[in-house]
Amino acid sequence: MASGLNQSSDSDLMWGLRNAVESCNDVTKEDLYSDKFVDLLVNDSHVGHVRPDFARALLEHGSLNDDDGYVLFTRSGNNTICLDRENRYKSAEEKTRVVAELFEKMRELALIPGWRNEMFPVVSDAGEICMNVERATASLLGIKAFGVHVNGFVKKNSNVFLWVGTRSKDKQTFPGMLDHLSAGGLPAGMPPTLCAIKELSEEAGVPEKYSEKHVKSVSCVSYRMFYKECVKRDVLFCYDLELEEAFVPKPVDGEVESFELLPIEKVCEIIAFEPGRFKPNCVLVIIDFAIRKGIVTCDMPGYFELVKALRR
User: Fold this and answer.
1) What is the structure's pLDDT at 4?
2) Sign of CA dihedral 216, 217, 223, 227
3) Among 90, 111, 192, CA closest to 145
4) pTM of this prediction?
5) I need a surface site. Which of 44, 82, 164, 230 has the fewest CB within 10 A?
6) Same domain, 95 and 208
7) Backbone angles phi, psi at 99, to 5 degrees
8) What percent of the chain has pLDDT over 70?
């Protein structure tokens, strides 16, 4: 076969890859604009989709403890809530501060689980950064979140091998699943490449000087999926890092328990025929890598639909 994936037919493989991608895109436009979610505005800018129960919590607890009892979240139509509708807080920094006070209070009431002490930007549909919020609220608010994923690979003659990590069984999310060489959420204010270099060092022991010289920004993918009944809308910046054959990554921060070097063809087959083994969003980045490396080609059935599905 043209792809070199010799344990299955191209059509079966492409069907499995497409299913893996679609599993990350189970939220439809109809879902977003149904009674499953409430639109979230910051002033007049749309930023997210909130579960109705969390929207009620924002409205209930959204009064600030100042002299005039200003209400931070208000209803704006039947299925919309708005932050600071009166534009009392002019800057993103001011909005960040007052929302942080509210979310800390909601955390104490156990309304925001999984606190991370890390700030994510809130980006409007037009691309404006409106404020920053605690990372644990990203899916609760249904905001667009950003991350970096690094394909660590090795070339042996004409063959491509990918380093695959196994996530720690103690991880808060997706424990024990297969993962990239390194990946992580992109904190507010941090350039993506700097984040990629940091994650490579912390998760896989790749020296920063090596990453600074060799890591390459190559692509991005995006998806929209249900996560704990919330809508998770992520954009992932994709990086490639070619490593020397002698280098063996090692778990550093405990997020990954081991690494294994596998042929990219084998990795694609795991994704296609063993659903649930890889952390869901990793499959988009790996499939994008396989396309760029000529493992998945335009001669294979469903190629155009697969490429299109990687960016929602």
Assistant:
1) 46
2) positive
3) 192
4) 0.92
5) 44
6) no
7) -70, -35
8) 96
